[in-house]
Specification:
The chain is α+β, with helices and mostly antiparallel strands and 105 residues long. The protein has helices at 73-76, 94-104; strands spanning 3-5, 12-14, 29-32, 39-42, 65-67, 79-82, 88-90.
Length: 105
């Protein structure tokens, strides 16, 4: 739950995102304090969190290929994604892929 401190009374106010408000960075939006009823402006800033994880295939080891599932299933048949590095590889031959694409049309 997001809250902001009212600059007038110092109370915590809950930010209501139901209408899509307060999600735009570098744009201030008007808010009314639920305690003192005064209006104030709220600025939004977005933060990113980064985390590293091992990818042995980037260092000479084998990829860990996993089937990809999606819709339409014909598009994803024969395609796999490495669970370490997210590389996608098509394991069907060119001819098999052309046949799968024809089936989609």
């Amino acid at each position: 739950m997001d809250t902001v401190t009212c600059p007038d009374c110092g109370e915590e106010c809950e930010i209501n995102h139901d209408d899509g408000a307060f999600y735009t960075e570098d744009e201030s939006e008007k808010m009314q304090c639920e305690h003192c009823d005064k209006y104030f402006m709220v600025s939004t800033s977005i933060s990113f969190y980064h985390e590293g994880h091992s990818a042995p295939c980037l260092n000479g080891k084998e990829h860990d290929w996993k089937e990809i599932h999606g819709y339409p299933k014909e598009y994803f048949e024969g395609k796999k994604r490495c669970s370490y590095c997210d590389e996608v590889k098509d394991f069907l031959t060119k001819k098999e892929r052309v046949e799968k694409n024809k089936a989609l049309q």
